[in-house]
Every structure is written in structure tokens, then in C-alpha cells.
Amino acid sequence: MSKEQTPIVEDVRLIIEQIYKRIEQSYVESYVDVPRVAENRLALLYLFLLEQGMTKERATIFCTATGLIQLGLDMHEKVTNTYEQTLTAERVRQLTVLAGDYYSSRYYQLLAQAGEIKAVEVLSGAVQRVNEAKMSLYVAERDSKLSSDDEYWELRNTIDTGLYVAIVNEYAKREEVRRFWIGLFKDTATMESVIGEWEHLKWQEKIIPLGFSRFLLQKPGATIAHVLTIVETKALEMIGLCEQMVRTLHPAETRNMLASITARYEHRVNRLKRVIEEL
């Protein structure tokens, strides 16, 4: 790890620690699996805020608040749309909803105490747009009405990057900066999503397609083998795109951080390829 990268990585690690400390509830954790913090998105958000001239202290508050809301949204996405068959399972389902609400509420407390009222407004509006996109995607998938891959990714990216894009839209100082960072968040989120699905399809003994894979299987004549090929191609395409972006980035801290993120995904892809070759 380079000397230039180390301070940023350490800052992000501390931010993630703060997020988990703020949601720590032993009772909840004994029944509900807490999602992982979206580390890569937080790292990019932190870099963006620093590049816009924010102090580390203020950027940390913004990232912690955003991470708390993202955890709440991710927790809610784990909730099924049907009642469970046992009382215990149904109580876990209800507790998952309440835990998501609790995580989300913690962001408001943090920003209010810091006097960041505008940020509350920005993130609240983003939550509404994310939830609208979730509903649109759910209905479109249920009714098989997604017309194209692009339509799927537009909704999926709104769900995954809506909070970060809202902050970029509000705090970017120039239009070209705004466009670049929005594109960066969406491209890296797409890369994360397709590699996650590729891994899921390869590691699971019983294949249950998720997200993009499920959408692809709705197409006439689609097979799991065909879907795997498309997902793999998309993953490699996104990694190549991010590698191109790395070479043009300034300052060095941003370039090094994106290179580090891309390298993590390349490692996962190479591991998948090795496993496939051994089968």
C-alpha cells in the first residue's frame, strides 16, 4: 500500500467503525444479519468531499450519516414481501424492518447535532428517490416489463448510488466535477453488482438468480449458461472501464483509491476464473 493511500484508507476504516458503533444493538444482532457497510462507495464519497474542500471532520460526519442510511436501506431490502410461515420467522422479518428504521434514524440525529440541516434535506430526498426506484424495479420485474438492460441498470444504480449521487449533485463545485463523480459512483456500483452476481451463480449449489441475472432469465430462450456468459462479460467490461478511468485521475489519492478498489474486484474475478478452470 502506498504512503499516499494509507491516510485515506485509515480514515475510511475509522468511519466504518463509527457507523457500527452507532447501530450496535446486541438484541438485534442476535436475530438479524446486519449488512456489510458499502465500503467502496464510502471511500469514494470521502475523497469527493475532501476534493470539494471539506475538512476531514465534516467529511467524516457526512460519510457516517450516509453509511447509516445505506445500512437502513440495505436492511429493508432483505425483507420479504410475504408473511413467513412460522411465528419466529415472522418476528425476525418484523425486527429486520424495525432495525432498518433504527439505522436510518441515526443519521438524522448525527446531522442535526452537527447543524448540517441542508444535508438532512439532501439525504431525505435521496431516500425517497431510492425507495421509488426499488418499487419501480420490483413491479417491473414482477410483471416482466423491463424493456432493456439499460432500463434495469438505471433503476439498480439509483438504488445503489442514490445517496451518493444526491450529495455530489449538491456539493460539487463545477459541472464537469459533478458529471465525473456521478459516473464514477454508477460505474463502480455496476461493477460491484455484476461481480457479486457472478460469484453468487458460481458458488451456490442451488442456483437462485438475483437482480440482473433474474432479469436476463426472463428473456425468451435464456439459459443459466447464457446468463453466466453475459454477467461475466459485463463484469470484465466494467473492470476495463474503471482501469481506463484510473489512468486519467487526479489527484494521486483519488487515483490510488480507485486503483485499489479495481484491484479488489480483479482479485475476485481471477479467483472465479481459477475455480471455473478447475471444474
How is the topology of this model organized?
Blueprint: H1 6-23, H2 26-31, H3 39-51, H4 56-77, H5 87-113, H6 117-142, H7 149-171, H8 175-203, H9 211-217, H10 224-246, H11 252-278
Helix pairs in contact: 1-3, 1-4, 3-4, 3-7, 3-8, 3-11, 4-5, 4-6, 6-7, 7-8, 7-9, 8-10, 8-11, 9-10, 10-11
Order of helices and strands: HHHHHHHHHHH
Roughly what percent helix?
over 70%
Overall geometry: globular
Number of helices: 11
* Rounded Rg: 19 Å
The proportion of residues in beta strands is under 5%
Largest sheet, in brief, is:
none
Distance between the termini: 33 Å
Briefly note the structural class of the backbone.
mainly alpha
Give start-end ranges of low-pLDDT stretches: 1-5
What would the average pLDDT be, to the nearest integer?
84
Number of DSSP-assigned strands = 0
Architecture overview:
Helices cover 79% and strands 0% of the residues. The chain is built from eleven helices and no strands. The longest helix has 29 residues, at 175-203.
Short description:
It is built from eleven helices and no strands. It starts with 5 loop residues before the first helix and ends with a helix. The protein has helices at residues 6-23, 26-31, 39-51, 56-77, 87-113, 117-142, 149-171, 175-203, 211-217, 224-246, 252-278.
